[in-house]
Amino acid sequence: MLARYTHQGITWVDLESPTHEEVRAVMAEFTIDTIVAEELLLPSSKPRVDSYPNYLYLVLHFPALRHSHKTQEQEVDFVLMHDALITTHYEMIDPLHKFSKVFEVNTLLDKSHIGDHAGFVFFYMLKKLYKAIEHELEYIRQDLGRIQDRIYKGEEVAMVTAISHSARDLLNLRQTIEPHREILHELEHESVRLYGENYTRFARALSDEYYRVHNHVMRLTESLHELRETNNSLLTTKQNEAMKALTVMALFTFPLTLVAAMFAIETPSTPIVHLEHGFWIILGIMGMIALTMFVAFKHRKWL
């Protein structure tokens, strides 16, 4: 699917799961190299930036933990020219869809001066994409808040799985965006050729957007580690208490079982057993042993 927007002399062509015919048409109109045109047809495994005489070709991946229609990692290819921007993706990407609505309204109403070249469209678009990552992080932060509440409600065992899921989301998100650092750093140098020295501060502002998101990820990762340590400590405490209770029960049971077993031996010389009230006497002896052990355990603060 091909969508085209033109505003104040700047053209944005957005391709979603493009066909060969659509790519060939764009290739012919904007004089795109055959290698790049082939790259637009299929997803790329790694982010990168390639420099060509009249344009830059960027590949970036963005996490979509909550809003992905097919995958948890969405690719966007950018072809940056002076007066045109071409984007390619292989499923609907919510931030780009919202950005297109705003851009379309500005095109129809001819309002808001977006900038003198396509680099500014790319700047605002990438800011929108990073803002979407912050929304993903907000979902994770809310999950961590719920996990914390449930930990202190005594649901430590159930939270082991929940913590693992949040850790997986943060790890996937971090692995997806970390390559952006090098791509944006390289963009600072390469964009000068296309847009001039004045664009450097906008390229640096995009790097700042990345670092803000990355720092947010790291803070959430630290919070997750603290929650995991707390949960593990509470689990260990519960296990220790259970083992303590089982040990005390064993200490109570063993001597009483031993006494009962001794009096169960049927021999002519077994004491008390043959007395008229022998059962109650033996029961009293066992009770005295249990009471003595209980007092001793309380004195030593084992109970």
Strand content: 5-15%
Largest sheet: 6 strands, mixed
Mean pLDDT: 84
Order of helices and strands: EEHHEEEEHHHHHH
The rounded distance between the terminal residues' Cα atoms is: 72 Å
Structural class: alpha+beta
Radius of gyration computed on alpha carbons: 35 Å
Tell me the overall shape.
Answer: rod-shaped
> What is the helix content?
55-70%
Enumerate the strands of the largest sheet in spatial order, edge to edge or round the barrel.
1-2-6-5-4-3
Poorly predicted runs? none
Question: How many strands in all?
Answer: 6
Number of helices: 8
Write a brief structural summary:
This protein is of the alpha+beta class and about 300 residues long. It has helices at about 20-30, 35-40, 95-110, 120-150, 155-175, 180-195, 200-265, 280-300; strands at about 1-5, 10-15, 50, 55-65, 75-80, 85-90.
Fold topology:
Elements: E1 2-7, E2 10-16, H1 20-30, H2 34-41, E3 48-52, E4 55-63, E5 73-80, E6 84-89, H3 94-109, H4 118-151, H5 156-177, H6 180-195, H7 200-263, H8 278-299
Protein model, in words:
- With 303 residues, the protein is an alpha+beta fold.
- Helices cover 64% and strands 14% of the residues.
- A 6-stranded mixed sheet has the order 1-2-6-5-4-3, sandwiched between helices.
- Helix 4 (118-151) runs antiparallel to helix 5.
- It starts with a strand and ends with a helix.
